[in-house]
Structures are given as C-alpha cells and as structure tokens.
C-alpha cells in the first residue's frame, strides 16, 4: 500500500510591472546578480555550482536566511530567449519545498511584467506548520518587497533597505 502524506500547499500567482526592458529585469533574477540589489544577500547566499558564475540550468546555490534556515536551490529551467527561470528550493531546516517560476514578458518597448508562479509545500507536520506560518507572514512581505527592491535598483543602481 502506498503511503500518503497531506502536505500543506500554498500556491500564489502574481504579476509585477516594470518600466524597464525585459532583458535587464530578467538578468536580475539570478542568485549572483541578486548581490547587486538585495540588501544582505551576501550574508545568506553561497554559490555552489555554475559554469558561467550566474544563473543557468542546473545552477545550484544555498541560502541561510534568518527565520527560514538553510535551503538548497536548483535552477531547473533557464532560458534567456524565453525570459524564463524556474527554481526548486528545498528548505532543509523547515521540511518544505518551493517551486518558483518567473517569466518576464515584454509589454511594449521599455516596459515588462514578471509573471510569478510560486508554490510552497510542507513535507511533514513540521513542514505544514512552517507553510502555514510562511503564508500568513513572510509570503505577503516577499511579494511586496521584491518588486520594490528591483524597481529601486533599476532607478538608482543602489540597494533598497527594507529594514
């Protein structure tokens, strides 16, 4: 008989609009480029494997974020031509998995949107509790903060501190 566990899952789709071209925005969706625009990223991010040194298919990096703990990320898809990247993230300390896909769509010259598809799933009761807490507290802040940081960086060349 097959074992079954009812993992708690939260799925969220959002669209972020930018007054910038799609290639420049897409290139920022990279663990190495995030050093340029995410405050404190240098303290939580470690690049493990990348032939180019930036995002690419099968790129692997880790993060150790306060309140979230250690995570292993894998770029399962990466296409500059399609402006599409997909990350699978295993939150080793929280017993949860994230599937995060982003596609940057050119709207008109100099304008684009990032279509975000985010799914987080608990792998145990501990993971389910984390997913519930994350969905209530961190997920709204994440989806509000990231586009603000991108926009600020694109306009100023500097990191936006959200503290």
| CATH class identity | Alpha Beta
Strand content: 35-45%
Largest sheet: 7 strands, antiparallel
Element pattern in H and E: EHHHEEEEEEHH
Distance linking N and C termini: 50 Å
Radius of gyration using CA atoms only: 16 Å
Helix content: 25-40%
Strand segment tally:
7
Keyword list:
163 residues, alpha+beta, Alpha-D-Glucose-1,6-Bisphosphate, Chain A, domain 4, seven-stranded antiparallel beta sheet, 5 helices, 28% helix, 40% strand
Structural account:
28% of the residues lie in helices and 40% in strands. It is of the alpha+beta class and 163 residues long. It contains 5 helices and 7 strands, in the order E-H-H-H-E-E-E-E-E-E-H-H. It has one domain (9-155): START domain (Alpha-D-Glucose-1,6-Bisphosphate, Chain A, domain 4), CATH 3.30.530.
């Amino acid at each position: 008989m097959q074992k079954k566990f009812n993992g708690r899952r939260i799925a969220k789709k959002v669209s972020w609009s930018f007054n910038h071209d799609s290639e420049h925005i897409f290139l920022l969706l990279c663990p190495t480029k995030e050093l340029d625009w995410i405050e404190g990223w240098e303290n939580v991010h470690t690049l493990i494997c990348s032939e180019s040194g930036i995002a690419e298919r099968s790129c692997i990096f880790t993060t150790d974020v306060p309140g979230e703990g250690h995570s292993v990320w894998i770029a399962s898809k990466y296409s500059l031509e399609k402006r599409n990247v997909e990350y699978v993230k295993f939150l080793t300390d929280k017993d949860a998995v994230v599937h995060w896909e982003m596609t940057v769509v050119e709207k008109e010259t100099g304008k684009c949107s990032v279509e975000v598809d985010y799914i987080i799933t608990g792998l145990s009761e501990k993971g389910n509790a984390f997913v519930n807490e994350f969905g209530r507290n961190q997920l709204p802040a994440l989806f509000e903060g990231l586009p603000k940081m991108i926009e600020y960086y694109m306009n100023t060349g500097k990191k936006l501190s959200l503290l």
